[in-house]
Design a protein that fits this description.
alpha/beta, Nucleotidyltransferase, domain 5, 2 domains, five-stranded mixed β-sheet, 10 helices, 10 strands, 39% helix, 18% strand, binds 5'-O-[(R)-(carboxyoxy)(hydroxy)phosphoryl]adenosine, binds zinc ion
Length: 347
């Protein structure tokens, strides 16, 4: 029953993504040709809190999931009957948010008698970086996934051959951008607003600390950096009150120096992993992959080692369902179909 032979030969996959605060659906043919991509962002809803509120996120997904899926099918010019299967993010993420997309996908697959596959959100971010490639990537590749919820390194040898190497000990890089933006009185999400202000500042003005793993293995940590930005804003006195954003001097220098430290914290372990594993290319995915400073710095440093770096276009860096439908195709084609017991997992 669970066999690729049963797959309808349209190759069309509906992808559904609801792991955090974006409700997304897309139709992709055979893991590569993008027919539609719809993303309904909740950023404006969470802006007042300076971060995602899980309960509000899952309620918003409930309102948007139906219209978003319908729009993705309409924009692709296909009906449910044309699909070869459905791919849905089932891990990792906010459990209440994941359950909305997963339950919807399960119901749709059951009603239409379509095969269903669960997709790992982080692996899909890595796959996103391969989707726009014209030439196949030299492997092994080291993949860095860097977003609001994740900062992790993988070794990739193929779409379904991804081995985790390391992940952050504490906060994700995107979360650090969001928290620093909040301290500096900038808009949420923090990545784009910190990066815009950083353009007016000096990245060498303040020497924020860089993380070094005690075991010397590739690794990440952002909580120390976040705390040193806070203490700097308090004038070097950890116990002083936090000043209002408009009273903070040289905010652009803080933004630029923080951004450089965060980027250094990402580039160094990635290159270290490349050296350890003789990697020939680097893939970068996730929302922070849209950061221009990271893109430039990673590309320049990797070029010194003769390593090619690939970033998705900005629209496929942040959460989307194209990457879910894309990677889901490979699971469908391999016959790795889920049954009604497919569950969501926060990790
Ligand atoms: O991948 P994503 O959309 O959602 C998660 O899976 O978390 O990533 C969102 C994160 C946010 O923390 C946002 O501040 C960050 O990506 N981000 C950026 C930039 N654009 C988005 N961080 C740095 N620079 C950017 N240009
Ligand atoms: Zn993501």
């Amino acid at each position: 029953m669970n066999s690729a032979a049963n797959l309808n030969d349209s190759g069309l996959v509906l992808g559904i993504e609801s792991s955090c605060d974006d409700t997304a659906a897309a139709v992709v043919e055979r893991g590569g040709r993008i027919l539609s991509s719809v993303v309904d962002s909740q950023a404006a809803i969470h802006a007042d809190w300076g971060g995602v509120v899980p309960e509000i996120a899952s309620r918003s997904h409930l309102d948007s999931i139906g219209p978003v899926v319908r729009k993705a099918l309409d924009e692709a010019g296909v009906t449910l009957g044309d699909l070869a299967g459905i791919a849905v993010t089932n891990q990792p993420g906010l459990i209440g948010s994941l359950l909305v997309g997963l339950s919807y996908a399960k119901a749709l697959a059951f009603a239409q008698n379509l095969p269903l596959v669960g997709v790992h959100h982080i692996e899909a971010h890595i796959y996103a970086a391969t989707m726009e490639l014209v030439e196949p990537l030299p492997t092994p590749a080291i993949a860095l996934v860097v977003s609001g919820g994740h900062t992790a390194l993988y070794e990739m040898r193929g779409p379904r051959k991804m081995e985790p190497i390391a992940q952050t000990l504490d906060d994700a890089a995107g979360e650090a951008f969001d928290k620093v933006a909040y301290l500096l009185g900038l808009a949420y999400p923090g990545g784009p607003s910190v990066s815009a202000l950083a353009k007016e500042g000096d990245p060498k003005a303040i020497r924020f600390p860089r993380y070094r793993a005690k075991d010397k293995k590739p690794g990440f940590s952002f909580s120390g950096l976040k705390t040193s930005v806070l203490y700097h804003i308090r004038g070097g006195d950890a116990l002083a009150p936090t000043p209002a954003p408009e009273d903070i001097p040289n905010r652009a220098d803080i933004a630029a120096s923080f951004q450089q430290a965060a980027v250094d914290n990402l580039v160094k372990p990635t290159l270290q992993a490349c050296k350890e594993r003789d990697a020939r290319s680097i893939l970068v995915g996730g929302g922070v992959a849209a950061n221009r400073c990271l893109r430039a710095c990673m590309t320049t440093e990797a070029a010194k080692l003769g390593i090619q770096v690939v970033f998705p276009s900005p629209a496929y860096c942040t959460d989307n369902a194209v990457m879910i439908a894309g990677l889901g195709w490979h699971a469908l084609a391999e016959g790795a179909w889920a049954d009604g017991n497919l569950d969501a997992s926060p990790r």
